[in-house]
Design a protein that fits this description.
The structure is a single chain. Helix content is 29%, strand content 19%. It is globular. The protein contains three helices and five strands, in the order H-E-E-E-H-E-E-H. It is an alpha+beta fold. Bound molecules: guanosine-5'-monophosphate and zinc ion. Zinc ion (ZN) binds at residues 1, 4, 6-7, 46, 97.
């Protein structure tokens, strides 16, 4: 993908603050961090979203997330983490190259990632189960 900024960053054509790199991934600091240490896991191969990401890379991305959470916790002393992964414009995705957000959380940081809980009614529950259950 010649016009994809995360392809260029992941493959080192554009410099980035890199926390980790291997043959398949680069982990960088987000330029617009939600909190101190907010990082992004980028596969080097282009996939627009999780649906396009090969299973093997999806599995490796999660293992890498676990490793980086450990490193960031040791280095920065955060109290918890949100791992966020947006797919589609409606879900807040702005860069259409798969990435995982690692967002360190600190007591009292006020970072807002939440939603207002609705209610799961019986009818809706049955309908969803009938349409989606694998
Ligand atoms: P999305 O909204 O697609 O889930 O997340 C895109 C993220 O990429 C945002 O948090 C944004 O701050 C970050 N970002 C966008 N462009 C760049 C860039 O050129 N360099 C870095 N390091 N982060 C970027
Ligand atoms: Zn790309």
């Amino acid at each position: 993908m010649s016009d994809c900024i995360f392809c260029k960053i992941a493959n080192g054509e554009i410099p980035s603050a890199t926390l980790y790199e291997d043959a398949e991934f680069r982990v960088i600091l987000d330029l617009g961090p939600a909190s101190r240490g907010h990082a992004l896991i980028l596969p080097k191969a282009h996939a627009a979203n999780i649906c396009e990401l090969p299973d093997e890379l999806a599995a490796k991305a999660m293992v890498l997330a676990k490793k980086m959470v450990g490193r960031i916790t040791e280095g920065l002393g955060c109290d918890g983490f949100n791992i966020v992964q947006n797919n589609g414009e409606v879900a807040g995705q702005t860069v259409f190259h798969f990435h995982m957000h690692l967002i360190p959380r600190y007591k009292g940081d006020g970072v807002g990632l939440g939603w207002t809980p609705g209610e799961l009614g019986d009818k809706e529950k049955e309908e969803i189960l009938s349409k989606v259950k694998a």
